[in-house]
Write a structure and sequence with these properties.
42% of the residues lie in helices and 21% in strands. By secondary structure, it is of the alpha/beta class. The strands form three sheets. Strands 1, 2, 3, 4, 5, 6, 7, 10, 11 and 12 form a ten-stranded mixed beta sheet that branches. The longest helix is centred in the last third of the chain and has 37 residues, at 391-427. It is globular.
Amino acid sequence: MKELGIVVCNYNKKDDVLACIQSIFESKYQDYDLYVVDNASEDDSVQAIRDRYGKNLTLIENKSNLGGSGGFNTGLRAAYEKGYPYLMCVDNDALLDENAIGELICFLKEHPETGIAAAKIYHREAPDYVQQFGQKIDFENFCTEVEYLNVYEDGSMPPYVYTDAVAACALVIRRQVIDQIGFMPEENFLYWDDTEWCYRCNLAGWKVASVGNAAALHAMGAKKEIDNTFPTYYAWRNWLRFFMKYTHKENREKLVETFLDSMFQIVYEGIHKGEKNRTRTVMLAYDDAIHGVSGKAGENRIFPVDFAEKPWQELFASEDSFAMYAGNYPGQVEDIMEKSRRMGYDITWYQEDKHPEGVREIILCDSIFQIEDLSLQKIYIDINDCILASEDDVLDVINYNYSRRSFIEAQKPVFMEGIRRQASEEKA
């Protein structure tokens, strides 16, 4: 019997998954069996895998998309039944170095206190820069911090790090850890499942490690809205669920205020811009989280990305030239100029102080709702594309702090009750 069962989960990434599988087969470590789970892909991934790799792997076809955790668990359960002492998860858009698998197995054998060992992940688009080398869970600010994010690989980083969590991108787990903590938290469907799995591993007394000699390339898994609010729903709901579940009782009020503050910002900005779909998704994700709803998103949770043109049209139509002060946000300058071109406005753009007298200035900033200059002599645009250029905008800025306090005070008892109810249900 082989020592390791490797599971790759795929959904609609034919080219990526073929490259991933090939990188696994090119590994110097060969004491493994490979299971590829397809999550009901709508491209021709399944046929392509069959055609290229035939009987060299076990292909499992899910009848529906079970999400990342459900897809991985389908393969993990199949491999677990075979009795492998080690099990591995590999993302379909990851490429493993030929030594990666062997280094992870070797690390676990040499460090019996370690329950999970993961590869050091580099950006596939920029292989000299680290994407993840461990992840810290911050229970003070209720977030996670990816260690060594975007750090250039100069050989000075430690050979391995013990950490709170690692991505399931290229991760090996001991069989006896699964005996204690179970498979991935399938109720998440997507996002935060690997973080919670690792946290359970730590709670069970095992260490979680990122191993420097085990390298993998990974396409940046973005949680950005492109067509719809799909990633926003799962990121918010599962982020809320994680900290509601694992935050100590004495920190719950701080947790509630921190999350409500973040939610209010999204709500208020959405109203200000006239873009409400992201606001709707976040508030519905919050509602599902405090009512214990998990799994695949229900109906009326995910909406098309909306873009309100009116504020930009009013801005671009007001002048035929502007002076742009980029400050700490030079990347946003081109984005704003591109908006004007796309919307059909022929505007002359000047950079900072290199402009004729009388040209109206646009100042880029972190948040217009923190701006004290309400004279409207200058225009302010923040990193979330909120604009301060009109009397109505001034009123929104003036009312921001009062509205924030009202929102938090109104929602706080609802949120606290949701946490208490779920804590009671878990005890029961």
